[in-house]
Amino acid sequence: MSEQLELVVIVASVREPRIGPVVADWVVAQRPGGVRTRVIDLAEIALPPDAELRPGGSARTEVSDVLAAADGFVIVTPEYNHGVPASLKRFLDWHYTEWMFKPATVVPYGVRGGLLAGEHLRPVLAELSMVTTRRMVALSAPWAYLAEGRYVPQNGEDAALREALRELTWWARALKHARHRQPFALVDWVGAQRADTDPEALADLVGHASVVGLGTGTRSGRETFAIVERTTQALVERGFRVVAVLDNQKVGELYDRFVRGEDVDIDGALRQAWGPWRTEEMRKALERLRLRNAEHPEDAVRVVGVGGSSVLPTDYERVAAMVEEAAPAEAAKIRVLFDVIRTAHDSGEHVQRAKGTHPGTPFVELAREARAIAGQAGIAHELLDAIVDHHANAIGVGYDADREERRAAERVLALRPARVVLWEGSAHVARDAMMGEHLRAELGEAYAAVHVTFGYGQAAGVDVPPPAPGSLEDVLLAAGGERTVALSNGAPAALDAPWRTRLISGVYDPARDGEHYHEVRSLRGAYDAVVFVPEITSTTMVS
Ligand SMILES: Cc1cc2nc3c(=O)[nH]c(=O)nc-3n(C[C@H](O)[C@H](O)[C@H](O)COP(=O)(O)O)c2cc1C
């Protein structure tokens, strides 16, 4: 959006001879600095025949573009028989969206100020979604105050006009920002969509698919997770039989055994999960799946970890204990190294770097050192290689997003023919990026993606402020309340454009909230639906 304000001065009178252009010249001469001004003289333009007028916008006219580009108007109009001239009313009626959500100042004139014309305009402009400034500059018999063909006011009208234009430019700037930040038509449309987060309605929207990605803008919101879980239950009712979580594959195996009724220490399993998934809410979700499966043992819902790593935090101690049997001194050295690198399972190295808690040496080097020490003691084990691989794959080290996202997608696709609900961050499940792109390429319409997002609140114990201006969440919040927005046909074209949307990761810093958004190329291209809750609270970490 350009900050440059564009004002259009409209000359309403079309008679010959007339005083209107002289008054308009005076207005233009008083225009505020830095504001671009154009004049539209109604005597100089031709409108189509009135037989073609339509409510809510007619055919384009030769000045439609000029009006559409304007941020505000000054309407210079005479009073004719206690109203505005027909030429002006006709001109107003010939345009519609060009006027909307813009301000106007009226400069009426007549024998005694032409105020009846000015006041006549207010309800007309209001109907066109315009704001009329409180200040009007009413000129009494301007034809009596001419010098060399120019209007020379005698009664302080110069100052009155400057004040009115100050008011006009304030509105023009404010409304320009508002039109850009939250286009009313879009807010209005969003506000007319489902005002709830009913899981059945969402499942109806995406239940046709064979894989549904339920993405969240944060993994640490209780309400957003609840939407994912409840929608998953509704999808299970519709035949989905696998919940794929982008987490450690071994953790997924433990979850799977748990939900199928095996005697698994679920808290122990959760403590090995990737940090943000290590929550009470996840445990309750798994317990509910276990209860459901107990009733349908022949038709169980499975849980699968589709993340890249198969190293558990407890694997470090397993390796150290193994080394200890053969070489206690080496085991002690290995434990020192492992104590450092094991922390990457709580928060990744890139998060530790962002928070200033990273010790410096890349963990993959410490992992290789541990493997070398074990090697000297004559111990080689695939777990040691897996640990090295795990850290070699860290974000900012050797993490190859394309490769990892493709592999995660392949793990999901390998679960077919079962129908799969995928729990991940919204950026990963989007149909046009990351793993969602691979799923879309393989499955076409049989892959559906949902973006579950929020306005403000608490995530991971951090206060998240209201959303940044112009973001998707900003528009959703402006529409008021909970919302389920289907992005199928019928959604406004604005949703095909790029949108910035919240992305709260481990490196989130509320003081720089504006930097924690990611851009989707097209909202409709990325997701089948967006679900929104205004406020979230933090999930509870498993102790
Ligand atoms: C059809 C017509 C109706 C008018 N009615 C009014 C009126 O109601 N009140 C008024 O103060 N002046 C009225 N006037 C006088 C105008 O204020 C004056 O003619 C003025 O110059 C018109 O502006 P213009 O020359 O830019 O067209 C009327 C003039 C015309 C032509």
Question: What does the secondary structure layout of this molecule look like, with pairings?
Answer:
Layout: E1 5-11, H1 20-29, E2 35-41, H2 64-69, E3 72-78, H3 86-93, E4 103-110, H4 115-127, E5 131-132, E6 139-140, E7 146-147, E8 150-151, H5 157-181, H6 184-191, H7 199-206, E9 211-216, H8 222-237, E10 242-245, H9 249-259, H10 266-271, H11 280-295, E11 302-305, H12 313-326, H13 328-341, H14 349-355, H15 363-376, H16 382-392, H17 401-413, E12 420-425, H18 426-429, H19 434-443, E13 447-459, E14 462-464, H20 472-479, E15 483-486, E16 499-502, E17 517-520, H21 523-526, E18 529-536
Parallel strand pairs: 1-2, 1-3, 3-4, 4-5, 4-6, 9-12, 9-13, 10-11, 10-12, 13-18
Antiparallel strand pairs: 7-8, 13-14, 15-18, 16-17
Helix pairs in contact: 6-20, 7-8, 12-13, 13-15, 15-16, 17-19
The protein binds flavin mononucleotide.
Tell me about this structure.
By secondary structure, the chain is α/β, with parallel strands linked by helices. It has three domains: 5-181, Rossmann fold (3-Layer(aba) Sandwich), CATH 3.40.50.360; 195-309 and 400-536, EreA/ChaN-like  fold (3-Layer(aba) Sandwich), CATH 3.40.1660; 313-392, no CATH class. The chain has 21 helices and 18 strands. The protein has helices at 20-29, 64-69, 86-93, 115-127, 157-181, 184-191, 199-206, 222-237, 249-259, 266-271, 280-295, 313-326, 328-341, 349-355, 363-376, 382-392, 401-413, 426-429, 434-443, 472-479, 523-526, and strands spanning 5-11, 35-41, 72-78, 103-110, 131-132, 139-140, 146-147, 150-151, 211-216, 242-245, 302-305, 420-425, 447-459, 462-464, 483-486, 499-502, 517-520, 529-536. The strands form four sheets. Strands 9, 10, 11, 12, 13, 14, 15 and 18 form an eight-stranded mixed sheet that branches. Strands 1, 2, 3, 4, 5 and 6 form a six-stranded parallel sheet that branches. A hairpin with a 2-residue loop joins strand 7 and strand 8 (150-151). The longest helix is centred in the N-terminal third of the chain and has 25 residues, at 157-181. The protein is elongated. The model has no long low-confidence stretch (mean pLDDT 95). Residues 13, 15, 18-20, 78-82, 110-112, 114, 143 line the site of flavin mononucleotide. Flavin mononucleotide (FMN) binds next to loops.
